[in-house]
Design goal:
The structure is a single chain. It contains two helices and 35 strands. With about 425 residues, the chain is mainly beta. The protein has two domains: about 150 residues, no CATH class; about 180 residues, no CATH class.
Length: about 425
């Protein structure tokens, strides 16, 4: 992996845990802009018309269409984040499907799709974009389906979608930043099936989803920082999954996030019945969680388990603030795939299951407890993804929205992202973007 180029059109600045609301920043350019509806009646017509390096600029309105972006290095941007709405009407699968390198999606809303609000994928053929939950999914052949390169989804609102709000699959060198997701029947944000991913997930808000953020088989230089994953059924998961390529998941960094109060009743049910969990690790390996605020999750703050025969190993929990959880850290792995080398620093004052869990850092395997040993809570019935409440108005992308940005750099910022300056976030991080109207 080439080192990330940070002196680029996309700049992420952390002050404590605050993430810049303008990571790419509109810049001057002479590239052609196609306006909707002035130059093209639909977004898809504009996307098909715009040249490489250009921009589709969308005026406020509701657009009942499914958009596929197959032109490299273009920007798809709304002039008003809350006013530009791509509405699936509960009928169409995906709002925006990105299958070309170097694409930005900015400043708009995708809602009421049966699968995904935004799908970025390197897995596509003559039948269109594919991902593991779509009809016709097949195991990844890297020669046939090389990963998509360079993407950005920024200042996008994804609500009431049947699977994922914003979904990056078989893709590398990208950024998901300053987005909002709610009402997703699987997860608000999902990064899956990539090695040497170099993907940065920053400044996002997920609430009232089955899961706030999910990472399956996405490994090496995935950095999740400065986000708020609160008020879901499960806040964040890192997992290995045999239905995707590149097992096992490994090497993610989760730093400086608020992962709190994931006990939502106004949300779709989680497929495995998960509820009241801040962070779930399943068959996850060599992941680092540091300086996160994990609080108010009624069952567990951090929960460790296995995926079939894949054990969770080498988890580092460092300088996190865990409080008000049913239990702060719990290991519920099966005996056949025991959790090993869980390092918790500091462990003083934390509630642990089993009680000697912190000793596994030096002793090796932990003896997981039965799920019945966890705090027992009443799990509310799920809500249809189409009926989850509408979010409050979300902030727009700053700057001159008519200016076309320069091309995305050849490598993503996560590979050389410096986590040492990221501090423990305040409890109200990004709270102004939460709630319903």
């Amino acid at each position: 992996m080439l080192p990330a180029v940070l002196a680029l059109a996309l700049v992420v600045t952390l002050s404590g845990c605050a993430v810049s609301e303008n990571p790419s920043g509109p810049t001057s350019s002479s590239s052609t802009t196609v306006r909707v509806p002035a130059d093209a009646a639909t977004i898809q017509e504009a996307v098909d018309k715009v040249p490489e390096g250009g921009m589709v600029l969308i005026s406020p309105g509701t657009y009942t269409e499914e958009v596929t972006v197959s032109t490299r290095n273009i920007t798809l941007r709304g002039l008003d984040r809350d006013g530009v709405i791509i509405d699936g009407e509960g009928l169409r699968a995906n709002g925006i499907q990105v299958i070309a390198d170097g694409v930005r999606v900015q400043n708009l809303t995708v809602t009421r799709h049966t699968f995904n609000g935004v799908l970025v994928t390197g897995m596509h053929d003559e039948n269109g974009p594919q991902a593991h939950n779509l009809t016709g999914y097949q195991k990844l052949d890297p020669a046939k389906f090389p990963p998509l390169q360079r993407f950005e989804v920024d200042h996008v609102t994804a609500t009431n979608n049947g699977l994922y709000g914003i979904y990056a699959f078989n893709s590398q060198n990208g950024v998901l930043s300053n987005n909002y997701a709610s009402g997703s029947a699987d997860s608000g944000f999902y990064v899956g099936q990539c090695q040497d991913c170099s993907i940065l997930v920053s400044g996002n808000v997920a609430e009232r989803n089955a899961i706030g953020y999910e990472n399956a088989n996405a490994s090496d230089s995935v950095v999740i920082t400065g986000n708020r994953f609160s008020g879901n059924r499960v806040g964040l998961t890192l997992l290995s999954w045999y239905q995707e390529a590149f097992v096992p998941q490994r090497g993610a960094t989760v730093v400086g996030n608020v992962i709190s109060d994931n006990n939502s009743a106004d949300s779709p049910a989680q497929a495995q019945g998960g509820f009241g969990i801040g962070v779930g690790l399943s068959g996850a390996q060599s992941d680092t969680l540091e300086r996160n605020l994990v609080s108010g999750n009624s069952v567990s703050g951090v929960q460790l388990s296995n995926t079939e025969d894949i054990a969770t190993t080498g988890t580092r929990l460092t300088d996190n603030a865990l409080s008000g959880n049913g239990v702060d850290v719990a290991d519920v792995a099966a005996t056949r795939s025991p959790t090993t080398t869980t390092c918790i620093t500091p462990d003083t004052g934390l509630s642990l299951l089993p009680g000697d869990l912190a000793a596994s850092c030096s002793a090796g395997a932990s003896a997981g407890v039965a799920a019945s040993a966890l705090p027992q809570v009443q799990v509310p019935a799920g809500v249809s993804f189409l009926k989850v409440g509408r979010p409050v108005l979300q902030p727009n992308l700053d700057g001159d929205l008519t200016a076309v940005p320069d091309a995305l750099p050849t490598s993503g910022p996560a590979g050389s992202f410096n986590t040492t300056s990221v501090t423990l976030p305040a409890a109200d991080l990004l709270v102004s973007s939460t709630g319903t109207r």
